[in-house]
Design a protein that fits this description.
Layout lengths: L9 E5 L3 H13 L3 E5 L5 H8 L3 E5 L1 E2 L2 E2 H10 L8 E5 L16 E4 L4 H12 L6
Parallel strand pairs: 1-2, 1-3, 3-6, 6-7
Antiparallel strand pairs: 4-5
Length: 131
């Protein structure tokens, strides 16, 4: 029996490093996710409205915004407050990250292992929350 379209999850990746964005996109597409990428936050809300992501992978250090501020914005809007967010960062680690009042559903420090990324995504999509 063929997979129904419902099984394919949409993942929005917001990452300013094009090499990392390309790698994440290729990996997720190879796992049958539908992927859309942004290199800055400027059109994030319009993009979310159009793409309807099941999960957002959000870099903390973006050229035009801090990912933690964007997370706060997402959590404060009715239409985006329930979208799971996996934050990634080259600057911070699990030990020194300060999320503020809004915590993402998960966090990975770069460079991360591909299997860790996929495990974390599958876990978050299944409803798990990683502190």
């Amino acid at each position: 029996m063929a997979k129904s379209a419902e099984l394919y999850k949409n993942i929005l990746v917001i990452e300013d490093n094009h090499a990392i964005l390309d790698v994440i996109t290729l990996i997720l597409q190879s796992e049958a996710y539908k992927v859309s990428g942004l290199s800055k936050s400027a059109d994030m809300l319009e993009h979310i409205e159009a793409f309807k992501p099941d999960l957002i992978i959000l870099d903390i250090m973006l050229p035009d915004a801090d990912g933690r501020v964007l997370l706060k914005e997402l959590r404060s809007l009715e239409k985006t407050k329930d979208i799971p967010v996996l934050m990634i960062s080259a600057r911070y680690t699990q030990q020194n990250i300060q999320h503020g009042e809004h915590k993402p559903n998960g966090f990975l420090a770069k460079p991360f292992d591909i299997d860790d990324l996929l495990d974390r995504i599958e876990g978050i999509l299944a409803g798990q929350h990683y502190d």
